[in-house]
Request: fold
Amino acid sequence: MKRYNITYVLIALLAFFITSCSEDTMDSINKDRNDALAVDAINELPAVEVATAFGTTGTDLAWYSSVYIEHNAGTFGQLMTADERLQLQDGSLFDNNWNSIYNNLLALKDIREKCGKGGPEEFNVNILGIAQILTAHDLAIITDMWGQAPWTEALKGSQLKEPKYDKQSSIYAAIFQFLNEAITNLKNSINNPNASQVRIGGNDYYYGGDANKWIKAAWSLKARYFMRLEKVNSSAVDSVLVCVANGFQSASDALVFTNYEDQAYGNQPWYQFLNDRGYLSASQTLANAMQDRKDTVRINNYFLTNSGGELAFAPNGTAVESQQGDKYSIGVLENDPTFPTVIMSYHELLFLKAEAEARKGTNALTTLNDAVKEAFGFWKISYPQFDQYFTDNIAPKYTADPLKEIMIQKWIAGYEIESIEAYNDYRRTELLPLSNPKNNSNGFVWRLPFVASELSANSINVPKVDVTKDKIWWAGGTEK
Reply:
């Protein structure tokens, strides 16, 4: 029998183990186990929910909207520039927002594919329904702010680097489809226990996995988006009332993120923004409207005194430079690290109902009363004389111009917490008493400029728009 030199055997064995390790074991060692390639949908859910609250709804888009809609005046840095209506076509302003929203839409797509038909978690229709609702919301933010946007060809990565821009009308059709499918899936998760393998619980920061509440949220968002189309869809107002009846029934149903913490990395974004930059001050325009309605109670609850201990409001468009409440007052959101982020409130739904009733020619005064009272409740304002206040100061203005007063009351109620919605409402109705003189001299911002990254990487498809002239489709503009 042939005998092998032990040295050769050892060398061969060593070569085998080295080769085996480099191809298998080393591949495993080089993987970051904290950044897994495959994650169960239930473990992705917290991240997309936080991103929707903090990144989509809570940061720059809300801050700039508050300046455009004169909830606030920008009194320092970029927001002072926005208040003076300068650099309005600058594509670099909203790059981070655009990219972060699309990143969240990509994560939501991954959840939908996992939990959708043929996916590895296709029976988790409860998680699928939640992901569809969040997709509808984030997609609506994109198209409401920019108009046309990539969607049918979006989220394909290197497979398609220059996606086409879809018309807003087709994006809205997708939004309603997501919400309708979400309602169906969430109902299935309730009616068929076998349809959902996972009980969500604490991984759902909004409702703790309560499918019934998510269904109400879907109907409520449908009401919002149908009202957005009242200029372009003759049946939209009727649809609003149908959706309202199936939506939130009380403030406890509202879609609100409350999981902020009073520590450096857990604060809500408005508080962080004040402490980091301090670019915003309380608006004279808003204060004038509230003072005209003798709204002293809310004035004292909305605003903080300046460094001199006085309530002082910044004149929109002409304020002097000031930071962090030095010369002017600031809003209470900037002083409360855990103030909730509102995705959609119960009082917004009631304001939508009031607007729909007024547009149909019926008396909406009772609904308006309910909406304003609920808004007081959201702000935790106790006002035993509310009914008399409403009768004396709001009802007469409603009688004089029902629709205008509904929109003004909604604007006041949404101070900072719903600035994005107020911006959408004004562009749709133009019924708010804006007073910034730069709106006339330099132009009002009817839509956001397309972002620098798209202008660089996808210039062939980016629509050419002038943000001071070209309204978006649902506001009466044309689809280019």
Notes: Residues 6-29 form the longest helix (24 residues).
